Amino acid sequence: MRTLNPYSRVQLPDSSPFLLNCSPLNNLTIKLLCNIKIIERGRNMNSGDIAFIIFCAIAVFFMTPGVSMLYGGMVDKNNTVNVITSTFVCCGLGILLWFTLGYTLSFGPDLGGLGIIGNFDYAFFRGLSISEAGPYSSSIPSALFALLQTMTAVITPAIIVGSVVGRMKFKPMVIFVIAWMFLVFFPLVHMVWADGGLMVKLNVVDYGGGTAVHMSSGISGLVACIMLGKRENLGKKAITPHNLPLYYIGGSIVYAGWFAFNGGTALGANGTAIHAIINTALSSSVGILTWLMIEAIVNKKVSLSGIMIGAIVGLVGITPGAGYVPFWSAPIIGFFVTIICYFSMTSIKTKFGYDDALDVFGCHGVGGLLGMLFVGIFADPSVNSALAMKGLFFGEYQLLINQILAIFITIMISVIMTFVIMSLLRKITVIRASSQEEKQGLDISEHGEVAYNNE
Questions:
Q1: Bridge partners, 234 (sequence order)
Q2: pLDDT score for 232
Q3: What is the pLDDT of residue 33?
Q4: Considering only CA atoms, which of 267, 261, 264, 266 is closest in space to residue 284?
Q5: How far apart are CA 113 and CA 301, in angstroms?
Q6: Which residues, at least 6 apart from 71, have a Cβ–Cβ distance to it below 8 Å?
Q7: 259 contacts 41 by C-beta, under 8 angstroms
Q8: TM segments (predicted)?
Q9: Cα(397)–Cα(419) distance, integer angstroms
Q10: Could you tell me the maximum CA-CA distance found in the chain, to the nearest angstrom?
Q11: Handedness of CA 179, 100, 193, 150 (dihedral sign)
């Protein structure tokens, strides 16, 4: 959980050799660093934690351009510019919305005592400090905490784009993202991670975003794609990634950034961060190998596109419990989440006939849901003392019940609010490209650009 950071920070004692011996040195840089350290010590700040979280924030931001490239390689060439633009614009929307009202609605003091949304105390980052720790971390400034969470607000709506690619017009997409942030994302973040949040009161455990990030985007993507309808060419011709190298580069950026995502959630360079990063590596590695095994058995061939999805599914599955479950459980989580997600993206998708273009629901919706359940099974207070309850594997069942309740709340909010947004958009504008525009590709009709000028 982002608001929990049980590991104590190492404070320099008054007799520290660093503080006593560095000031006589003639090197101006060392003197300045020494002075900074003294100030930080006085204000309960830790420069190691600050540097680590700044790095994590930058790396997590870079995940969104990674998603742009990943999606850009997955679609056909005539929709490449559209999907890259639709995801990258979330960098602008996410940052500005978070700065103006998103942070305060998400992490501000609870409004009305219901645990659903925050008040306006922190609007426009008012009251946030670059030099004072708290309130959600004891060793990094509140402004840096807000910056790290900004990057989550950037990438989450970008994920949804993959469900409706190739047929949703760009302007309605922008309106959808803005409305979705206020009606789905900000309330869920407040419920799951903020002081006084509804799910916090229910003792729900979500380390890195199984509910607010992955389930919300996956389920909302499913609702949106069903309401939008299937692509014109679906079933008429094979739809395969048009640029596997671009897909691989984007996926690799997302993969690498995920270590910063889960590591940074610990809010410091501490044991929780180390534990989360190791679990992230273990689950994703098993995801790769499990998908490889399934494809080898079912298709008799192993695809690059497949094993990259396997890695991402493993990452999604471990994220809710990365800092709370034992090392040995991470491969188990990666294995079962990958198997279930594979059949969700193939058999279940085919059976129900919905057109989730880039399998956002099968990967993030299903993977996030399963990850939340596995926290209820494998959560262990000996791994993280912030946990109030053990998982089912260790003899207690209440946490699993709490996780199921959180899943239900997340599904209801995501489904209802997405349905409302899409219904209203239908009434005020044309949200779907015409048949001719789909055949031509949205690159030309929506942006007047093409990805490849030499063709």
A1: 237
A2: 83
A3: 40
A4: 261
A5: 55
A6: 83, 84, 87, 161, 162, 165, 250, 358
A7: no
A8: 50-71, 83-105, 143-166, 173-193, 213-230, 242-261, 273-294, 301-319, 325-345, 357-379, 399-425
A9: 33
A10: 77
A11: positive
- pLDDT score recorded for residue 236: 66
CB contact set of 13 (below 8 Å; sequence gap of 6+): none
pLDDT of residue 234: 76
Taking the C-alpha atoms of residue 450 and residue 446, their distance in angstroms, rounded to an integer, is 11
Instruction: Give me the average pLDDT of each 10-residue run along the chain (455 residues).
Output: 36 34 42 40 76 98 98 95 97 98 97 95 96 89 96 98 95 97 98 96 96 98 96 74 95 98 96 98 98 96 96 98 97 98 94 94 98 98 94 96 98 98 96 93 94 80
User: Is the peptide bond prior to 6 cis by the omega test (within 30 degrees of 0)?
Assistant: no
Residues 225/355, Cβ–Cβ less than 8 Å: yes
Q: Name residue 403's amino acid.
A: Q
Report residue 169: phi and psi, to 5°.
-65, 155
Cα dist. 142→59, 136, 358 in Å? 19, 7, 36
Structure tokens at 307: 């094993």
Would you state the torsion angle of the CA atoms of residues 143, 148, 150, 153, taken in this order, to the nearest 10 degrees? Answer: -150
Amino acid identity, residue 201? K
**Type of residue numbered 180:** W
Whole-number Cα distances in Å, 362 to 96, 108, 214, 421, 432? 30, 33, 11, 22, 23
- Length reported for the chain: 455
Q: How big is the CA angle at 171 (ends 168 and 174), to the nearest 5 degrees?
A: 90
- Residue pair 140/45 in contact by the 8 Å Cβ criterion: yes
Number of H helices, E strands in the chain: 20, 0
Answer yes or no: are the C-beta atoms of 225 and 48 closer than 8 Å.
Answer: no
Tell me how far apart the terminal alpha carbons of the chain are, to the nearest angstrom. Answer: 49
CB distance 382 to 323 below 8 Å: no
Q: Are 245 and 274 in contact (CB under 8 A)?
A: no
Tokens of 424: 């209203």
3-state secondary structure of 28: helix
